[in-house]
C-alpha cells in the first residue's frame, strides 16, 4: 500500500517537472490560464511554469512583449556570414 502511494507521488512530481520544463510555452500559458480560473494564484503559477504573468488571459497578449519582438533585420552586406567548425582529428 505504501509503495503504491510513494510511486504515485514520484510519478506526479516527474509529471509536474516535465510540464514546467519541456512543454511548449503556448501550452504552459494555457495551463496557467486554466489554473488561474480555478482559483490558483496566477503570478505564482506563472513563476512555476517559467512564463510571464498575464500571458494566459482571454484578451490575448498583455504585457509579455513576445508578440512585439520581430526577427532581426538582415544586414545589407553582400557576404553572408559563415560559421566554421574546426575538427581536431587524433590519429
TrEMBL record:
- InterPro entries assigned: DUF6587
Name this protein carries in UniProt? Uncharacterized protein
Record the organism.
Duganella rivi
Amino acid at each position: 500500500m505504501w509503495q503504491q502511494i510513494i510511486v504515485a507521488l514520484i510519478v506526479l512530481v516527474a509529471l509536474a517537472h516535465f510540464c514546467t520544463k519541456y512543454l511548449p510555452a503556448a501550452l504552459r500559458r494555457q495551463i496557467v490560464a486554466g489554473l488561474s480560473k480555478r482559483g490558483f494564484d496566477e503570478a505564482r503559477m506563472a513563476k512555476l511554469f517559467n512564463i510571464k504573468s498575464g500571458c494566459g488571459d482571454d484578451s490575448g497578449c498583455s504585457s509579455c512583449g513576445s508578440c512585439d519582438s520581430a526577427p532581426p533585420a538582415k544586414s545589407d552586406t553582400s557576404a553572408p556570414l559563415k560559421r566554421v567548425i574546426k575538427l581536431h582529428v587524433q590519429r
